[in-house]
């Protein structure tokens, strides 16, 4: 009787936990408690019964879905019917689509759900907690299970979780576990949270609620009587599956990774003891030079010191002097013929300016056409669409207080002030206003809008506005105000609370690939254009993935990029103009609650052009100041009555015109022959030629004023004689500079090359015009002055005669009486040598610490909105620029060996293409790679795999290669699917055009449709690309290092892939992103700079030696001083924060030219002096030539340079004002202080008497 009672109780309660019994069996229909499910939520019927023996088709399906529970036909007991297995298979397929890359993970995941659904001991490992009545099609009402508690050992759950936590999604570079852990994402996911998500029916995927109770092995506390923990055998990810599946790849399983050698340590800095090695060497060198200087004893002069070199030098000077004297006399005698002829010649050259081509594209300016970066850019642009155009706002609300939100599902969360509903709505309104931009397009001959130019990854052929890729926080709500305002009560663990937009936001930023959140709202996280919005594209300024604490919102509109010749290029620019107008108007609105920065793709070029136009008046003022100075300084003012007679206003104007004509002639000539110019040339070349030309003008005019006309000498002969004295010195400088610049044209940088060519011809033309037109102009002015006629009013004469004594001016007496003696006394000489040599050694040390590069914000004017954008970008963006690793023609992707050499999933080579990229991301501080590359090869393999519901083909049997129905299983036993060549080529176009969805997330449309280029005739893959992401890069040094490391990695991959059978030896993998073409120059600019400066220094030595009659000592001292000026300039650049780049290189080349002016005139004057001692000769040269150089170079340049400080463009402020100020001051100091002292110690001895 007692036994009968127990049996009856068992039947009535159905709550016993015994081996061999089921708690539920058979499919009972759809769960009435689940709404908005993404797949049909089919639930089982409550049925306490013995496990059934599965046979026939039932067993075959069971073995396919749950092979780990199959023990042979007729020997296998299970608690699931055929219909249940079909539903389970459908549910598992969704997960397999992302987990199938790792067979052991997919097996463990299936094992969990097979155990709770089909285990013959089902009643022991779970307890039913909730049921519901469901009416069957026949009208019968059955009790269905809609919730249960499952008991699982932590050893099994932990091992299963470990096998899956590193499985990647190739399209995004992220982890699959992030899509399977709900609100926690990949970072915070744990075994418990992972299983909780699987058992949460609110996620739209689970058909019923499962409460997974995880307990340590052997623990019985908390278990119902008779219940046991499920403790199946979980596979490690580096193990093969019982069905023959291979171990997971390293990309998906850390245990499978081979021993990858650590990157070599960074080179240690050069040290000697504990001090910087370069500093120690500089100190030693300085000490040695100082000791040699102390030991140096000046030799006495003797007639024996006159050598053959001295005689040759004097002969050279006499020949050149005689030649220029004759030439000058002729030019002065026929000024009215000379001037028109010069004008005609200049006009013949200058007329070419009408065809001048100004290069404004930075790429064409700084990157050589045949450079590697330009070749790679050309390959990319020829095969792929140009990188899309970015239009972006980064918005903050610094004054908004943060608040805490007690979420039902996520607990207490700290929300920053900007993550508030009213600001999100305001952002949405701004976004919709921008999306609604319309304008008339002449190019399209109709009204154009965003959809005409937007980047629409999932509908590129005929996009609507909602197909356009717009990334922002409102996209988590599909840009719907209704979704944003949605509120609903939800009960969790007996607690009922309201859930709203905040719960949805928390969920979506942690699981952006979800089609349905786990809240009662049941909303999707996908953007309205169909793609995911990754949190780093929606918010910024957070730490440790605490997205609710973000300090910035990000709004990004992506447009297609077009070639400049494409009609849609102007349409895109016009849309961006409308974008900027709306944003700037919004920024001015006093009711705006945001503080923000913004940019459009066109902004960089717009701002550069704006500042160029605005700074043109600054350059005009600079030249006007220089002209005014020259006009005033050239005059000889003997008395107030003769001011208008003795002034040299017209001569100064003529000198300026000579400079202008030489520049115009140079520009016109090169325009004739098709060499483009640039804004740098327009800004720098006139300044350079003006410095050279003004110096020569001062030397010539001052020499004429100081020299008395000899008895019986005509005015023209006087001018000719003076020209004979000074023209060799002018020739020395001009020829040195011209040859210097012509050699500088050997540079591979287009901007440097064109600058050098324009400058060389301009300097040469300036010298020629000075020897012709200016001599003629001075002759006309001398006639006027001799006739005592006023300069402006030529008909007016004055009676006050010209003084009989030559006008010494102000500078010459001062320098002769005070400056030269003070400089060249014994104490000063030693002190000057010590100070300048110490400075030189210090600057050599600093030279090794100058930064190389040009930060892009420096190209902007100081008041540009782009400066705010760059500051916001560096502060708030959490990921760097995307970079593509591109393959060229010559690799066989269709062979099994080729596939394995590229992919990173199961069966792939451990050091394959994508595996190496993944290894590099483990050392982001060295590789500058943050996210592994997306791989179309891996996703294509998964797409082909019958385990997913994408493309199903038979891989064996009589129907091999044919379409495989979804109800048949044809999964390779080892999990490794490699299509044949025919299959590969046949289905690749379908994969690339397949839109991803819940059933098939591996579709290639959007992610890969533009990533593979095939030959239209042969089908061969001639180009493909794999996209990774750099770490955030904030300055040019990091951009350059990222390029260098990416190229090293790509070269390593190339060498490995060339070893694959059938690979062409010219096959190559190279990295590409839009910034590389700008920063490549900094990989070689140091060598380029040394070469350019070296070839510029060489002619200064050679020409000086030749024109001084093979005077090697003077040539060497001349060269040494110019080298010191150049080195000191680089040293000061380090101290003043001026980076070394192409712009500063142009200025350093200019520095060599200006240094020649400061140095060579004085060197020649010393060499030709006949004073008895070197000190006296140095005094004479300093007084006579130094005064002219000071007035002609230093005082000409300085006023014009100081005006440049008012420019808005930071490039002009830094590289023209600061750098040219440094060059001028250092040139003046070395030319007028150091060089006289140097010559007084080491100059040539007396050359004998003329």
Automatic annotation (TrEMBL):
By what name is this protein known?
Answer: SSD domain-containing protein
Which reactions appear under catalytic activity for this entry?
cholesterol(in) = cholesterol(out)
Q: Which PROSITE patterns match?
A: SSD
- Which protein family is it in? Belongs to the patched family.
Q: Which GO terms describe its cellular component?
A: endomembrane system; plasma membrane
Q: Which PANTHER family match?
A: NPC INTRACELLULAR CHOLESTEROL TRANSPORTER 1, NPC1-LIKE INTRACELLULAR CHOLESTEROL TRANSPORTER 1
Which membrane topology term applies here? Multi-pass membrane protein
Where does this protein chiefly localize?
membrane
Q: Which residues form the SSD domain?
A: 615-780
What start and end residues bound the annotated signal peptide? 1-17
Gene Ontology terms: biological process? cholesterol homeostasis; cholesterol metabolic process; cholesterol transport; intestinal cholesterol absorption
Keywords attached to this entry:
Cholesterol metabolism, Disulfide bond, Glycoprotein, Lipid metabolism, Membrane, Signal, Steroid metabolism, Sterol metabolism, Transmembrane, Transmembrane helix, Transport
* Compartments where found: Endomembrane system
Question: Where are the bilayer-spanning segments?
Answer: 277-297, 334-353, 616-637, 649-673, 679-702, 722-749, 755-780, 830-850, 1089-1109, 1116-1136, 1142-1162, 1183-1207, 1219-1246
Highest taxon of the lineage: Eukaryota
Checking Pfam families in the record gives: NPC1_MLD, NPC1_N, Sterol-sensing
Q: Which GO terms describe its molecular function?
A: cholesterol binding
- Entry annotated with the keyword Disulfide bond: yes
């Amino acid at each position: 009787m007692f036994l009968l009672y127990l049996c009856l109780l068992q039947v009535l309660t159905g709550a016993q936990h015994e081996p061999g019994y089921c708690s539920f069996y058979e499919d009972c229909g759809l769960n009435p408690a689940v709404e908005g499910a993404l797949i049909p939520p089919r639930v089982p019927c409550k049925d306490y019964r013995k496990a059934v023996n599965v046979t026939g088709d039932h067993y075959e399906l069971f073995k396919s879905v749950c092979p780990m529970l199959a023990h042979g036909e007729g020997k296998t007991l299970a608690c699931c019917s055929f219909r249940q297995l079909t539903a389970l298979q459908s549910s598992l397929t969704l997960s397999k689509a992302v987990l199938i890359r790792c067979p052991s993970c997919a097996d463990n995941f299936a094992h969990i759900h097979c155990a709770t659904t089909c285990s013959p001991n089902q009643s022991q490992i779970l307890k039913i907690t909730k049921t519901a009545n469901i009416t069957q099609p026949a009208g019968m009402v059955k009790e269905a299970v809609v919730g249960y508690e499952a008991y699982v050992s932590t050893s099994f759950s932990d091992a299963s979780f470990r096998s899956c936590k590193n499985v990647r999604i190739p399209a995004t570079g992220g982890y699959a576990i992030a899509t399977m852990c709900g609100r926690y994402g990949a970072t915070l996911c744990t075994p418990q949270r992972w299983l909780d998500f699987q058992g949460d029916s609110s996620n739209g995927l689970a058909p019923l609620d499962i409460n997974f109770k995880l307990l340590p092995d052997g623990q019985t506390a908390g278990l119902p009587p008779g219940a046991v923990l499920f403790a199946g055998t979980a596979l490690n990810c580096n193990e093969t599956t019982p069905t023959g599946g291979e171990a997971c790849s390293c990309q998906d399983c850390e245990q499978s990774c081979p021993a990858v050698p650590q990157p070599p340590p960074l080179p240690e800095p050069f040290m000697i003891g504990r001090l910087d090695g370069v500093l120690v060497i500089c100190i030693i060198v300085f000490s040695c030079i100082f000791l040699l200087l102390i030991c140096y004893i000046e030799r006495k002069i003797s007639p024996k010191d006159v050598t053959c070199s001295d005689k040759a030098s004097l002969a050279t000077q006499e020949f050149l002097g005689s030649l220029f004297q004759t030439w000058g006399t002729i030019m002065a005698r026929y000024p009215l013929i000379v001037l028109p002829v010069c004008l005609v010649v200049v006009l013949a050259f200058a007329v070419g300016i009408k065809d001048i081509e100004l290069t404004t594209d930075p790429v064409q300016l700084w990157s050589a056409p045949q450079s590697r970066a330009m070749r790679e850019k050309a390959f990319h642009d020829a095969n792929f669409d140009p990188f899309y155009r970015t239009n972006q706002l980064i918005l903050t609300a610094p004054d908004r207080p943060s608040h805490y939100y007690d979420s039902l599902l996520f607990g207490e969360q700290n929300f920053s002030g900007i993550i508030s509903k009213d600001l999100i709505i305001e952002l949405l309104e701004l976004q919709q206003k921008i999306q609604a931009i319309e304008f008339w397009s002449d190019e399209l001959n109709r009204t154009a809008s965003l959809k005409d130019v937007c980047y629409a990854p999932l509908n590129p052929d005929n996009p609507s506005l909602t197909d356009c890729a717009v990334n922002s926080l409102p996209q988590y709500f599909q840009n719907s105000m209704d979704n944003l305002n949605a509120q609903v009560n939800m009960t969790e663990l007996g607690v009922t609370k309201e859930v709203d937009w905040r719960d949805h936001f928390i969920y979506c930023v942690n699981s952006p690939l979800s089609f349905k959140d786990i809240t009662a709202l049941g909303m999707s996280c996908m953007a309205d254009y169909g793609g995911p919005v990754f949190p780093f594209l929606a918010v910024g300024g957070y730490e440790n993935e605490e997205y609710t604490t973000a300090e910035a919102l990000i709004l990004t509109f992506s447009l297609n990029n077009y070639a400049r010749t494409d009609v849609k290029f102007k349409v895109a620019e016009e849309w961006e103009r409308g974008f900027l107008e709306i944003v700037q108007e919004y920024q001015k609105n006093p009711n705006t609650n945001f503080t923000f920065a913004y940019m459009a793709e066109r902004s960089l070029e717009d701002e550069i052009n704006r500042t160029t136009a605005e700074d043109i008046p600054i350059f005009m003022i600079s030249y006007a100041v220089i002209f005014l100075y020259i006009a005033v300084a050239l005059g000889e003012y003997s008395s107030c009555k003769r001011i208008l007679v003795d002034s040299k206003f017209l001569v100064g104007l003529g000198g300026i015109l000579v400079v202008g004509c030489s520049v115009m002639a140079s520009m016109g000539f090169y325009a004739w022959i098709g060499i483009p110019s640039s804004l740098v040339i327009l800004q720098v070349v006139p300044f350079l030629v003006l410095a050279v030309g003004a110096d020569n003008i001062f030397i010539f005019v001052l020499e004429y004023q100081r020299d008395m006309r000899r008895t019986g000498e005509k005015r023209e002969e006087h001018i000719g004689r003076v020209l004979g004295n000074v023209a060799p010195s002018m020739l020395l400088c001009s020829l040195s500079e011209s040859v210097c610049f012509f050699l500088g044209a050997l540079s591979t940088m287009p901007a440097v090359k064109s600058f050098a060519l324009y400058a060389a011809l301009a300097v040469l033309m300036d010298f020629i015009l000075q020897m012709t037109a200016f001599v003629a102009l001075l002759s006309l002015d001398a006639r006027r002055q001799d006739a005592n006629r006023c300069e402006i009013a030529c008909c007016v004469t004055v009676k006050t005669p010209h003084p009989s004594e030559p006008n010494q001016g102000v500078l010459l007496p001062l320098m002769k009486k005070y400056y030269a003696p003070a400089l060249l006394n014994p104490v000063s000489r030693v002190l000057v040598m010590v100070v300048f040599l110490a400075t030189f050694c210090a600057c050599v040390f600093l030279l090794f610490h100058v930064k190389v590069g040009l930060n892009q914000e420096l190209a902007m004017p100081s008041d540009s909105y782009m400066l705010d954008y760059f500051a916001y970008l560096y502060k708030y963006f959490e990921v760097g620029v995307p970079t593509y690793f591109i393959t060229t023609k010559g690799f066989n992707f269709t062979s099994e060996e080729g596939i394995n050499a590229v992919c990173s999933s199961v069966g792939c080579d451990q050091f394959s293409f994508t595996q190496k990229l993944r290894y590099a991301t483990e050392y982001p501080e060295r590789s500058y790679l943050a996210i592994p590359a997306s791989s179309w090869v891996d996703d294509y393999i998964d797409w082909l795999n019958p385990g997913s519901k994408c493309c199903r083909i038979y891989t064996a049997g009589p129907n091999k290669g044919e379409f495989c129905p979804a109800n048949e299983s044809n999964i390779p036993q080892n999990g490794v699917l490699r299509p044949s060549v025919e299959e590969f080529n046949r289905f690749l176009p379908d994969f690339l055009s397949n839109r991803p969805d819940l059933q098939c997330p591996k579709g290639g449309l959007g992610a890969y449709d533009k990533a593979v280029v095939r030959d239209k005739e042969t089908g061969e893959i001639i180009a493909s690309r794999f996209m990774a992401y750099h770490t955030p890069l904030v300055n040019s040094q990091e951009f350059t290092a990222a390029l260098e490391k990416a190229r090293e990695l790509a070269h390593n991959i190339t060498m490995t892939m060339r070893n694959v059978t059938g690979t062409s030896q010219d096959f190559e993998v190279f990295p590409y992103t839009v910034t590389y073409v700008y920063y490549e120059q900094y990989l070689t600019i140091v060598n380029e700079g040394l070469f350019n400066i070296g070839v510029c220094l060489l002619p200064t030595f050679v020409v000086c030696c030749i024109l001084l009659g093979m005077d090697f000592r003077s040539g060497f001292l001349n060269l040494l001083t110019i080298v010191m000026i150049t080195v000191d300039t680089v040293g000061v650049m380090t101290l003043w924060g001026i980076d070394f780049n192409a712009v500063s290189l142009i200025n350093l080349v200019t520095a060599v030219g200006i240094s020649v002016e400061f140095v060579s005139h004085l060197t020649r004057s010393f060499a030709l002096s006949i004073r008895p001692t070197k000190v006296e000769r140095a005094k004479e040269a300093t007084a006579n030539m130094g005064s002219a150089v000071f007035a002609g170079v230093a005082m000409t340049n300085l006023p014009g340079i100081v005006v440049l400080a008012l420019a808005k463009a930071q490039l002009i402020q830094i590289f023209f004002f600061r750098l040219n100020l440094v060059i001028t001051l250092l040139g003046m100091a070395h030319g007028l202080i150091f060089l006289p002292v140097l010559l007084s110690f080491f100059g040539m001895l007396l050359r004998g008497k003329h």
